[in-house]
Design goal:
This protein has 370 residues and is an alpha+beta fold. It has 2 domains: 28-88 and 155-259, no CATH class; 100-152 and 264-366, no CATH class. Helices cover 26% and strands 14% of the residues. The chain is built from 9 helices and 9 strands. The strands form 2 sheets. Strands 1, 2, 3, 4, 5, 6 and 9 form a 7-stranded antiparallel beta sheet that branches. The protein has a two-stranded antiparallel sheet with strand order 7-8. A hairpin with a 3-residue loop joins strand 2 and strand 3. The radius of gyration is 26 Å and the shape is globular.
């Protein structure tokens, strides 16, 4: 029997939409979005992210072509009590597997190391010193690497002009005030500091008449990460020009101390200890517990006072024994991709099995168990 065509059925068949009927973003729009996301990620890592893009005194010096100098003229700190033209920051990076109630994408929170103000007082470093000591005694490289991941990272805050005849910073949104701020890693800072030890240099590089410009030169290492080892001061002195002197007169210099992190309160120190434990455990960031103190991008500060925190059931807040701690300086996140996640089992535990705590993890690492 020949089957006939069911015309009524054909009427109910949904027509496949033409590709052109979709409201698709153009290639240019997608590229622009990817670029904006990359810049936002870099700013978050460097601690300069302030929300929606707008003119900002912070200079994204890494957005320059390779092998072309960005010439900066460093300026003195407005704080006359600061003998240097920079401020040193010690920050700790805590990575989380998502945000409770929001998403599961990895996020990072930067918190200040309390030892910028009080020696041997940081709950994170107190614990890490014990990890280093144990790793040294047992030869446990896994524990040593985990400690290195969480060890404080140094960065240096300076202010400067973009000097004449400098390569442009890509997509820079410069404010009206041409005096900018930069946050550089130890690699660049060591180049800056080296001139101070040169006996042939008679004046500080910040001197208005006999100072020198500093050329930031970006290249790539074998892994594709930014490196700045070609950066250096000019061999020639350059007096500030009339426009630069007028800007200093009009706007004044920045007090760099105003842009440094504030010392944590006892409640904030407790939050840091709790966040550290959660990060090591591979848990998500919990806004209900910590947003009053420190937050990743996209999390708002809550209204009201800080919540009451339950003391962390581990030794991060106890006094550390005096040991010779190796200072492990990981690559500063201003210019490099985010560090890899700690070696932690983040697979959800079965309902009858409790989650692995930070103390359990460390005990396992100390014992050499994989």
């Amino acid at each position: 029997m020949t089957l006939g065509v069911n015309k009524e059925a054909n009427k109910n068949v949904t027509k496949k939409p033409n590709v052109k009927e979709y409201n698709m973003k153009s290639l240019a729009e997608i590229r622009a979005q990817l670029k904006a996301d990359a810049e936002r990620s870099e700013a978050i890592k460097s601690g300069t992210f302030t929300g929606t893009r707008q003119p900002d005194a912070f200079l994204a010096f890494w957005n320059i072509p390779e092998n072309e100098p960005l010439n900066l003229r460093f300026l003195p700190d407005a704080d006359e009590n600061n003998p240097f033209f920079w401020r040193e920051r010690d920050m700790i990076n805590l990575e989380f597997n998502g945000v409770v109630g929001m998403h599961t994408d990895k996020v990072r929170v930067q918190v200040p190391c309390n030892e910028m103000w009080v020696p041997k007082s940081c709950p994170v470093l107190t614990e890490l010193r014990k990890w280093y000591e144990s790793a040294k005694e047992t030869g446990n490289d896994e524990l040593k690497n985990l400690a290195s991941k969480y060890w404080k990272k140094k960065s240096y805050l300076l202010q400067c002009f973009i000097a004449p005849d400098s390569v442009a910073v890509k997509d820079d949104m410069a404010p009206e005030n041409p005096i900018r701020r930069v946050l550089v890693n130890k690699e660049i800072f060591d180049k800056v500091k080296s001139i101070l030890m040169n006996p042939g240099i008679k004046e500080l590089p910040t001197h208005y008449q006999e100072g020198r410009d500093f050329g930031v030169v970006k290249t790539r290492n074998g892994g594709g990460f930014n490196k700045y080892d070609m950066s250096q001061f000019s061999m020639s002195e350059r007096p500030l020009n009339a426009e630069e002197l007028a800007a200093i007169e009009q706007y004044g210099l920045f007090d760099l101390g105003e842009f440094m992190p504030k010392q944590p309160t006892p409640e904030e120190l407790q939050a840091i200890a709790e966040m550290f434990e959660a990060s090591v455990d591979g848990k998500p960031y919990d806004p209900a517990r910590w947003a009053f103190a420190y937050r990743p991008a996209g999390v708002q500060k809550p209204n009201g006072t800080a919540p009451q925190s339950t003391p962390v059931q581990q030794t991060v807040a106890q006094a550390a024994p005096v040991v010779n701690t190796p200072v492990v300086e990981a690559a500063q996140t201003v210019v490099t991709p985010a560090a890899t996640a700690p070696v932690v089992n983040t697979t959800p535990a079965a309902a009858s099995k409790p989650a692995v705590s930070a103390s359990d993890l460390v005990a396992r690492l100390k014992g050499g168990n994989k």
